[in-house]
Each structure stands twice: as structure tokens, then as C-alpha cells.
Write a structure and sequence with these properties.
Elements (H helix, E strand, L loop, with lengths): L1 H17 L6 H18 L20 H6 L16 H6 L16 H12 L20 H7 L23 H12 L10 H12 L6 H9 L5 H10 L2 H14 L18 H12 L4 H10 L11
Helix pairs in contact: 2-5, 8-10, 11-12
Length: 303
């Protein structure tokens, strides 16, 4: 029991050393006013995430980096400046280890760094910029980890309690999640509501009174399917959904800024996108045409 007590006490002590939240407010204020500006001005150029080339493997822009040290070992011994390589370097006690190399710090700055180490290197809790380990880009590894590269697998629709509710296998997945959350699906929408939803979703325009009447009088199970097929074949479909792609491409018919001149030929790209959506061009082909349009055979004759 005593062993457990002292082991727990030791672990707690380590936690206090490593956690910035355990430092007194006066220690953190000392760091922010005295130490951080000093490190930023004299050390970060060579010993931070922003360094063009990290010198000696040493990071001084976050606490764990200071404690870890660099190629020659830990930079500090907590509470013991006389045994810390960082203090040795700024004191110019070793001709092979003089930092910063541009010139010795003032006596006041050296005293501040000594005091900082004596206090246990106080540092507020914060994420270290660029602290992640950078590895070479590996396409095979990325493909194995990302869902978009995984081969399609045939999924078995889950069983549901309300077996008569689904009208397609997709509904099984939706209903299964609803039942898991102890929720009930909404009641079926009225036909007038359905046709308005279909029109606004697919072409962005409301149905005319005549189109509504025709649909309401059609009692066939395929009535809604015929409406949807007609909307997908409408030229307005490409105008409605092509806008999302044009927004992604930041399409505009003027150049913007104070010189807001019209872009005279950009409408050709707009019409191309609308045609592509109306012709159901696959996304991989659409992207290929964007990247290498002048290097591949056209989908249709120029005439």
C-alpha cells in the first residue's frame, strides 16, 4: 500500500512538472514577459517550427521541445541551471557551444533564463505549432487509409422493426438509425408537397398549376417517377445543379475589384458546365476535361 502511495505521488509530481496548468500565475507571467520574447528574438530563427533548417535537432518554441533537447541531449535540468546545457551555451562557457552565435546575451537576459530554469521552465498549456512528425508523402499508404479509395462492398440492408416502411434498400439504413435512436420517421408527405419538393430540388423552380393538377390526377404508382425523370431530362436541371460546380470554381462574369470589367468569354465555360450536367457526364471525365481539356479527344464534334 505504501509503495502504491509513493508511486502515485511520484506520478503526480511528474504530471505537475509537465503540465503548464500547474505553474503559478506569477511564473507564467514571468515567462510571457521575460522569456518568450527573449526566445523569439534570439532562438526561434534556428530552433522552432518556422526555422528553414532546424539546428541541432533542438526546438525551443514549445516546452516539450525544451525538455527533450536536441542531438546532444536535454537542453535543461529542471530547477538546476548550473547543470543545463542551455545555460552553459548562453554563458559562453564552452567554445564549442555558444548561443546565440551572433553574440552573447546581456547579463540581465542570462539571469532571466537562469531564473526560468530554476522555476522549472514554466510554460502555459498550448499546442506546439508544427510539432507533428513530418513524413514523406506515401500515396499507397494514403489510399489504404482513406475511405474514398476503398473498393465498393455489397452491403446487406439492416433489418428493421417497421418492415413495411422502407420503399427501397436505402430506406432500411435510414430507418435502422432512426430506430436505434428511438425516433419515428415522419409521415408520408402529401402528393402536392412531393411534387413541389421534386421541382425545387431538381430544377430550382416551382411547378405550374397545370403540372400540379396533372400529377394529382395520376394515381399510378409510377407517377412520381415520371415527374422525376422529366425533371432530370429538363435543361433547367443543369442550370440548377451546375451552379454548385460553378460556385466551387468561383465562377463570375466580371473581374471584380475596383476594375469590375465584364469577362466577355467566360459564359462559354458556364454553358459547358450546364451541358455537362445535362448530359450526365461522369465526374471523373468532367475533372479530366478541366485538367487536360486541350490534350484529349472531345466528347462531340466541333461542328
Amino acid at each position: 500500500m505504501f509503495i502504491r502511495f509513493f508511486l502515485g505521488l511520484g506520478l503526480a509530481s511528474v504530471s505537475m512538472v509537465l503540465s503548464g496548468a500547474e505553474f503559478a500565475a506569477t511564473d507564467l507571467e514571468f515567462f510571457e514577459k521575460k522569456i518568450r520574447p527573449l526566445l523569439a528574438e534570439n532562438c526561434f530563427k534556428c530552433h522552432s517550427a518556422k526555422a528553414k533548417k532546424l539546428k541541432g535537432g533542438l526546438r525551443l518554441d514549445y516546452r516539450a521541445g525544451v525538455l527533450k533537447g536536441g542531438d546532444s541531449g536535454p537542453a535543461v535540468q529542471l530547477g538546476k541551471p548550473e547543470m543545463s546545457r542551455l545555460v552553459e551555451a548562453i554563458n559562453y562557457d564552452n567554445v564549442d557551444l555558444e548561443m546565440p552565435p551572433s553574440g552573447k546575451l546581456s547579463a540581465a537576459h542570462i539571469a532571466d533564463l537562469n531564473e526560468w530554469v530554476k522555476r522549472g521552465v514554466p510554460w502555459p498549456n498550448e499546442a506546439a505549432a508544427g510539432n507533428e512528425v513530418k513524413e514523406k508523402f506515401n500515396l499507397a499508404k494514403r489510399k489504404a487509409a482513406h475511405w474514398a479509395w476503398q473498393p465498393l462492398k455489397k452491403q446487406v440492408p439492416p433489418r428493421v422493426k417497421q418492415a413495411n416502411w422502407p420503399t427501397s434498400p436505402i430506406d432500411n439504413f435510414i430507418l435502422a438509425k432512426l430506430e436505434e435512436a428511438k425516433l419515428k420517421p415522419a409521415t408520408e408527405a402529401a402528393k402536392r408537397t412531393l411534387i413541389r419538393r421534386a421541382y425545387f430540388d431538381l430544377i430550382g423552380l416551382p411547378p405550374t398549376p397545370g403540372q400540379i393538377d396533372t400529377y394529382l390526377k395520376d394515381n399510378s404508382p409510377e407517377a412520381l417517377t415520371r415527374v422525376v425523370d422529366g425533371l432530370l431530362a429538363s435543361p433547367h436541371f443543369g442550370e440548377r445543379w451546375g451552379r454548385h460546380w460553378l460556385d466551387l470554381m468561383r465562377y463570375a462574369e466580371t473581374f471584380g475589384h475596383e476594375f469590375d470589367f465584364a469577362n466577355q468569354e467566360v459564359w462559354r465555360y458556364r454553358d459547358y458546365v450546364i451541358r455537362a450536367f445535362n448530359e450526365d457526364v461522369p465526374f471523373d471525365r468532367l475533372i479530366l476535361e478541366h485538367v487536360a481539356g486541350d490534350q484529349i479527344a472531345p466528347r462531340y464534334s466541333r461542328e
